[in-house]
Structures are given as C-alpha cells and as structure tokens.
Amino acid sequence: MTRLVRPISCMALLVMVGASACVPQAPSVQGRAVNQLYGIFAVIASIIFVVTAALIALSMLRYRAKPSDDALPAQFEGNVKLELIWFAIPTVIVVVLFILTLQKLDVVTERAPDPESIIEVDAYQWGWSFTYRGEGVNISGGPHNDPELVVPIDRAVAFEISAEDVQHSFYLPRLLIKRDAIPGRTNRVDVEIDEPGRYIGKCAEFCGLLHAEMNFVVRAVPPLEYRAWLNERKQDDGNA
Ligand SMILES: [Cu+2]
Fold this sequence. Notes:
Elements: H1 5-21, H2 29-62, H3 80-109, E1 117-124, E2 127-132, E3 137-141, E4 148-152, E5 156-163, E6 168-172, E7 177-181, E8 187-192, E9 197-203, E10 215-221, H4 223-239
Parallel strand pairs: 1-5, 4-10
Antiparallel strand pairs: 1-2, 2-3, 5-8, 6-7, 6-9, 9-10
Helix pairs in contact: 1-2, 2-3
The structure holds copper (II) ion.
Residues 123, 168, 203, 205, 207, 211, 214 line the site of copper (II) ion (CU).
C-alpha cells in the first residue's frame, strides 16, 4: 500500500497544478499580475498539501499497530534539527510570497503618467455615473438600465471612484479589478485592457435593497474606434 503513496501524490500534484493553470487569464496588465500571483500561490499551496497529505498517509500505513505487537514503540522527546527545519521552511515560504506580493502590488496600484482618459466614477443607490473628465461626456444608469461605458484597448484608463450615499464597490470580475467606492473619498485605479470585448461590472459591497441589480458594462474597443465613439457622444451630449 505504501508503494502507492508516491504515484498518487505525484498525480494529485499534477492535477492541482494543471487546474490552477486552467484559471482564465485576465485580459489586462493589472489583472495578469494578479493571475500570476494566484498561480504561484496555487502551486506552492498544492505542493504543501500533497507533501503533508502524503506524509500523514505514509505514517498511518507504515507505522500502524500490528495485532501481534503489544509492546510500546520507541519514545522520543524533542528533536532540535527537525524543529529548526519546520520553522525555517514556512518562514522562507512566507517571506518569498510576501516579496512577490509586494512586487505585483506595485503593478496593480501603479498610476499611468498620462492616461488616455480619466473617468470619474460615482456610485449611488443603486446605479453608476461615469464622467469622462474634460470631454463633457457622462454615462449613467441604474437597475434595468445598466450603463455601458467605452474604453480603448492597449491604453491606460484611470478610474477615480467615489460614492454619493453609502459605501459601494467598483468590481470588474473578469479583469480582476476591484476598488471601494466611499463617500467623501476618491480611490483611483488605472487599468490597461488588452483584448476587445464586453466586461460585466458589479457593485461588490452590499449597499441596500437593489444592490444585486447595480451592474454596468465596460466595452473595450480599439483606440481609433474609441475616439470616434467619444466624438459622437460629445456631439450627442452637446445637442441634448
Ligand atoms: Cu452598491
């Protein structure tokens, strides 16, 4: 039976590492940094799980009491070398993960020096208002009328996020972006999307009765299409 421990452990490790590699990749510079960090955490956690489970299984199988064996097994008290090893290994793992997390945090929180657009996000019960700063364009909507904003791909766009009434949260699940929207405070997050598409946005902070219907859409398009859309909206809003 103990001969099976190693092949089963290797298979379990491969399945877990493979599963972590199958997680969909976020199509943005910031989301990809988070994805990479998730991947590293998943691989290290999988190795720890498999090694721990294998050692438990091995000791249960190899050292279980035998019917004929009623003598007390050899007794040990303390093992300095072993204790140092199981102190050192988790410490090294935690320090390495901490340093990697700080590095990825730099990517996620970095502000673009010259973003293509700055979009002021105002959350309220139960909708969103998006104002393109300096462009005279506003898009807003609430339940059953989800606002759809347009952003360019391959360009950094800055979101400056605040709230009018209670706390909300600006959340783009597919892009792995989330920032709290807090009354009286502005949180900024810069996002550079690199695949065109429609990305669903949600409020991720329970904020009242219609919280679940507080959705929006981010449509990412090529830069030229974005400029054309912006000019069209400017004219429409100007004529309104
Ligand atoms: Cu909300």
